[in-house]
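User: I'm putting together notes for a lab meeting next week and I want to include a structural view of one of the chains we've been expressing. I don't have a solved structure, so I'd like a prediction I can at least talk through. The sequence is below, exactly as it appears in our construct file.
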Amino acid sequence: MMAQALGRGRHGGSALEQERYYANMSEMWAFHHFTPSLLSDEKEVGRSKTLILAHEFDAQIADTLESTGEPFLGIMWADSTDGAYRSPKFDNAVFCLTLLLSSLRREGLSQAIDLFEVGAGYGSLPRMLSSAKQALAELARPIHVRRYTVLDVRFVIDLQLWYLNQTCRDQIVLRDWAESPHVAPFLGSGLLDPAKLWPELGRNASATGPLEVDFVEPGVRDAFAHLYSEAHAQEAGSREGVPATRALIAINSWHELQFPEYLWYYNQFVAAPAWRAGVDWILYVSNRYWDTERRLELLLKPRPNYHFKVHYEHCNDSTCWRVLRRTL
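Assistant: Thanks for the context. Below is the predicted structure for the 328-residue chain, given as structure tokens.
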């Protein structure tokens, strides 16, 4: 029923039908949770409180991300404005990425960053990073985003693929693990060299070139996690170069999952060692009215070989933004 409401059952994967369906997405109730939302008038109210916080935390990174602007695609009546408007979701994306990237940069980065996002909405963060990739890499203290992975359900991935194809063009390369002919042979055999799926391994990070984005739905995520771990274990064990810094992004998503589903991400990215798929950092944004205490306690519980600690925390009446860091 949800797949039907969110489009998969209506466009059937057809590119033409996707264009007809998604082009009007902001006027459909089912997409209101994902699309850019209502617009604010920056000429009248100035910077939002969210953007002010982002600039106070790191003005350089916030400026770089804010300068990417926001496409009007999917925002109702946006084509009737004079261009001086943006959505609260854009401001929140700037704030969240500023918190994470600035925290990583302050504490010392590897040559490159690999990012994973649990539930990516309509694709706002990878769109923003694809637009800002070169500018971030050219900062005095550069930030090299090497690869972005979205873990989401099928019918929302369909929306993300359509949106990013429309808004990013040659700034992004999209790989759908469920449908890519380049991935399919690897899913059928554990004997093939998994490093071939990530050709950037062992290479110096590049400021030029599009952002590489993988899309992983539940049906292929176990295969993805295994192949990613196998390939990056080789990188971790190599004497050449330094493994990328890894961060997991969960913005009002991970904490909303049923506990067994929550545990899949915990076991793959938190409990797993760094030489597999374990991440070094977590951006954890959660609603204070959800039952989140048990999940947060699990994340922060000291273990024999690692411990995630709160590096940064900011809460308002409804939401908490936390940056967590792995320590030994």
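A couple of points you could mention at the meeting. Confidence is low (pLDDT under 50) at residues 1-5, 26-33. The chain has one domain: 2-36+45-78+85-327.

User: Perfect, that's what I needed.
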